[in-house]
Design goal:
The complex is a heterodimer of chains A (478) and B (374).
Chain A (H helix, E strand, L loop, with lengths): L1 E6 L2 E6 L10 E6 L4 E12 L5 H12 L2 E6 L5 H8 L2 E12 L2 E3 L11 E5 L3 H4 L6 E7 L4 E5 L8 E4 L6 H14 L3 E6 L21 E4 L9 H4 L1 H11 L4 H16 L5 H10 L4 H17 L12 H8 L3 E6 L5 H20 L6 E6 L7 H8 L1 H5 L1 E7 L7 H6 L2 E4 L5 H10 L4 H9 L5 E6 L7 E5 L17
Parallel strand pairs in A: 11-16, 11-17, 12-14, 12-15, 13-14, 15-16
Antiparallel strand pairs in A: 1-2, 2-6, 3-4, 3-8, 4-6, 6-7, 9-10, 9-19, 17-18, 18-19
Helix pairs in contact in A: 6-7, 6-11, 7-8, 7-9, 8-9, 15-16
Chain B lengths: L32 H12 L5 E4 L19 E3 L9 E2 L9 E14 L2 E14 L2 E15 L3 H7 L14 H24 L4 E5 L3 E2 L6 H13 L3 E6 L4 E3 L2 E2 L11 E4 L1 H5 L8 E2 L1 E7 L6 E7 L4 H14 L2 E2 L2 E2 H10 L3 H14 L3 E2 L5 H6 L10
Helix pairs in contact in B: 3-4
The chains are: A alpha/beta (478), B alpha+beta (374).
Chain lengths: 478, 374
């Protein structure tokens, strides 16, 4: 390879056919005289615009179908001509520099075109972290393992995005499993029921057995009204069930009276609403929401069948995951579930009953109310909810969330709009995002952010030995 | 030596080269041994040193070093009274063979120039086109080595100094002629009852193009029942200021205009010999017209019959035989090939590539827009 051109932070290299370079690879352009080097990442490969190549191809096309031939080439010169035809132009972005063996992000040196030596750069040596709490993500282009310390995800906001079927949920499950292995508590908002078998392996008993708790709202996730509390219930009514403010105030009065009388049950609440002295329209509004709550099956007066979220949180604190299975649920039900969960988590975290928790939210736009987005990256983050959003619709996540994200795990996208959305807000230039993400194979993701010390890296995510359940069901068999 | 194949070859269960090589002759004969040795010895002499590659531009696709070998001639007005000979195409499958050779300057060294040659033969037999391409072979031509080169090529006369043309470039011309004549000789000796097409004219007798070589090639062709036809692309024949080729513009095709007498009258009997009978040929309706030289020793009827058979046997796109067109296309060096050869020479002969010092650019800066001369 030879250094050809530098324009801004883009370096162009001439690469011969026997030199194998792929998008995402890291190269070191080392000026041996100056003992300095540039660390660049390949973002695109093109054919080099060699003079006369058009003539050559035209001649081949003109003659290949109609003329058969034989070349007597005593000096074997044609091999050099063939090499030229396949010579590539490798487009790279400068990611850093090496000065006397030290890597830094500042770039002030332009290496020599003549004396520079271009070699593969072992980026794993730069991004490697302490491995006392290992998270084995996958293999890099160089076939080196990418193992990060679980601490890398501590206190971070992550986004996993990519088109359908590229491996987002797979990576998400791998992260959950790795965090559990490292004794971290996780909660998964599972809209497709993909995580319910996380503790079941394809062959041997899983290490995650008994460390994954699956709750299905209305089925094995039920709460008594005192467990829920007025504040959480008001959030449910206002944000999940859209109860008007006036009616909410009346409901609050009813709740308080029942609470004072120690009669706070679902049945007494219904009776109290019916007999409460209020305008008929207010009563109708409250009773319709009450009926929705009853029909959801999430509330019970039987303490023995109520889920003890505090106890579950305690179990998770030594490493485990609570999977909230929201598959086949109406959006109202999902929103109620999330309101209750986040409210309860906030309580547990503010009272230090839980130290911190890693929240994995699949397709959060389906259940997260408007005000929670900002809340998650500000207040909730400070009290210890560290969120990973997983979505195949990157435009459903607000720009402000992307800007606050510490790490983006980007899988393949071909849609220009999707790429544009991510490229605008990723921590690297949009060109790199677009060019690399377009050609990512299945289960390969581009990691951008703190986790890889801001050196974007393409990783082939490790397979996971668990029942995934996230695979698409097909009608036709092979 | 070995054959480097560019694609699978299926031609009547035999190699294409066997069309050219008979009996015990081996592949080495495709290129003359003395030329190979000359190439080898000249290239060995450049071990190490600097090399200024010929500049090839992305935007100027065409690079040609072919010399215009036809002399500009003025013809008398009486030609305007001549009637063209109408040709009737003879439908058939007469074998057609075309030969073309290209030469190209590749770059400069400290004491000379590097150049490359390539020869191509294209056959049209039974409706199929096949080609054999020989080369490229490279030469390092220096001012002090030209005597040795001339002798090696069999030229008695040394090149006299000329203020118009560097000796190195004239040596390149001799090398090119030598390879061309060699290839033509092989084709003429190995073909039977074929129409053999040359690029250029059948004019000989210049120091670079001795009569005896050209004559022996034509003799060999005739002995095998072949007829040699030479097509000139750049004809500078004019009658009363008008290009002679324009005379046939409105005539139906195929037709010939015999201008042999008029041309012959302009040359003294020595040293230049017109070995061909000269016509202006229009071989397809709406096509271009070309100067056509047909072996003078072939009777006029035979010459006209040869054109008739050629017209019926080969495609005549724009009035030019397809076989010869393919030979030209396949022999021409593209810019990409020039770079490939430069890379080969730099790698195999330890040359250091240096940037081209442009006198024009140095003197005139951005206003030095003309082409560099080679």
């Amino acid at each position: 390879m030879r250094l050809y051109k530098k324009e801004g932070d883009v370096i162009q290299l001439i690469c011969f056919p026997d030199e194998l370079v792929e998008k995402g690879d890291y190269l070191l352009i080392e000026d041996q005289k100056a003992k300095k080097g540039l660390v660049v990442q390949v973002i695109d490969t093109q054919f080099a615009n060699i003079p006369g190549i058009l003539e050559d191809i035209l001649r081949d096309v003109m003659t290949e179908e109609s003329v058969q031939g034989e070349d007597y080439d005593p000096f074997h010169v044609s091999s050099q001509i063939t090499v030229l035809k396949d010579t590539r132009l490798v487009i790279c972005k400068i990611r850093g520099s090496v000065n006397n063996g030290e890597i830094s992000s500042s770039v002030s040196h332009l290496p020599s075109r003549i004396s520079s030596k271009i070699t593969r750069f072992p980026i794993e040596t730069v991004v490697e972290t302490r491995k006392s709490r290992p998270v084995h993500l996958g293999t890099m282009k160089s076939h080196a393992e990418l193992t990060l310390d679980a601490k890398t995800f501590d206190g971070r906001l992550n986004i996993i995005t990519g088109k359908k079927g590229t491996g987002k949920s797979h990576l998400s499950k791998l992260l959950v499993a790795s965090l559990i292995d490292n004794r971290a508590p996780c909660i998964v908002l599972d809209v497709n029921g993909e995580y319910v078998n996380l503790s079941k392996t394809k062959s041997n008993p899983s290490k995650l057995q008994r460390r994954v708790i699956v709750l299905t709202p209305g089925l094995n996730m039920k709460l008594t009204l005192p467990q829920v509390g007025l504040r959480t219930m008001m959030s449910v009514l206002l944000f999940a069930l859209d109860l008007p403010g006036n009616s909410a105030r009346v409901f609050s009065g009813i709740w308080r009276q029942l609470h004072e009388r120690n009669e706070l049950t679902l049945s007494s609440l219904g009776a109290a609403i019916l007999r409460w002295d209020c305008h008929e329209s207010v009563r109708d509004a409250i009773i319709s929401r009450y009926n929705t709550m009853v029909e959801s099956g999430m509330f019970t007066d039987d303490e023995s069948e109520a889920s003890d979220l505090e106890r579950i949180a305690g179990e998770l604190s030594e490493g485990g995951a609570l999977v909230v299975n929201m598959k086949n649920q109406f959006s109202t039900m999902r929103r109620m579930t999330v309101e209750i969960l986040l409210s309860k988590l906030t309580d547990l975290l503010t009272t230090w009953k839980l130290r911190a928790i890693f929240l994995f939210a699949e397709e959060a736009h389906l259940y997260l109310r408007e005000t929670y987005w900002e809340d998650i990256i500000t207040r909730m983050r400070h009290i210890g909810i560290f969120t990973t959003f997983i979505t195949n619709q990157p435009d459903t996540i607000r720009e402000s969330i992307y800007r606050q994200a510490d790490n983006i795990f980007l899988f393949n996208f071909v849609n220009e709009n999707d790429l544009e959305t991510v490229s605008k807000v990723a921590r690297i230039d949009g060109e790199s995002v677009k060019l690399i993400a377009k050609d990512l194979p299945l289960h390969h993701c581009l990691i951008i952010g703190e986790a890889v010390k801001n050196f974007p890296i393409v990783v082939n995510v490790h397979p996971l030995n668990v029942e995934t359940m996230g695979e698409t069901r097909f009608f036709f068999k092979d | 030596m070995w054959i480097h194949r560019t694609e699978a070859i299926v031609y009547e269960h035999s190699n294409i080269s066997s069309l050219l090589l008979k009996g015990s002759q081996s592949e080495e004969t495709l290129l003359p041994d003395f030329l190979m040795k000359l190439s080898d010895s000249s290239m060995r002499a450049i071990k190490g040193g600097r090399f200024k590659p010929r500049e090839v531009s992305l935007f100027d696709l065409s690079i040609e070093d072919e010399p215009h070998r036809d002399l500009p001639l003025m013809l008398g007005d009486e030609l305007l009274q001549c009637k063209p000979i109408m040709i009737e195409s003879t439908e058939g499958k007469a074998p057609v063979v075309a030969v073309d050779v290209s030469s190209m300057k590749i770059g400069d060294t400290d004491d000379g120039v590097l150049c490359a040659l390539r020869a191509v033969i294209v056959w049209k037999i039974n409706g199929a086109y096949v080609y054999l391409r020989c080369g490229p072979i490279m030469f390092h031509i220096t001012d002090y080595g030209h005597e040795y080169m001339s002798k090696s090529l069999g030229f008695r006369e040394l090149l006299p100094p000329s203020m118009f043309s560097p000796v190195t470039m004239r040596i390149l011309g001799r090398l090119r002629n030598t390879l061309e004549r060699w290839t033509q000789r092989l084709v003429c000796a190995s073909s039977k009852e074929a129409l053999i097409l040359f690029d250029g004219s059948l004019t000989a007798g210049t120091p670079d193009n001795p009569v005896k070589h050209a004559q022996s090639i034509l003799d060999s062709a005739r002995e095998n029942g072949n007829v040699v036809l030479a097509f000139s692309k750049a004809t500078k024949l004019a009658i009363a200021g008008e290009r002679v080729t324009n005379l046939l513009e409105k005539m139906p095709a195929p037709c010939l205009l015999d201008i042999d007498h008029q041309i012959g009258a302009q040359f003294p009997p020595n040293p230049v010999k017109l070995l061909g009978r000269i016509y202006v040929a229009k071989l397809s309706p709406g096509g271009f017209t070309f100067r056509l030289d047909i072996d003078r020793q072939v009777p006029v009827d035979g010459a006209i019959d040869a054109v008739s058979r050629l017209s019926g046997s080969d495609l005549m796109e724009q009035g030019y035989p397809e076989t010869l067109r393919l030979a030209h296309i396949l022999s021409t060096f593209t810019a990409n090939e020039v770079i490939g050869i430069q890379r080969f020479i730099a790698r195999n002969h330890g040359l250091r590539i240096t940037s081209q010092l442009s006198l024009r650019k140095s003197l005139f800066g951005p206003f030095g827009t003309g082409r560099e001369s080679y």
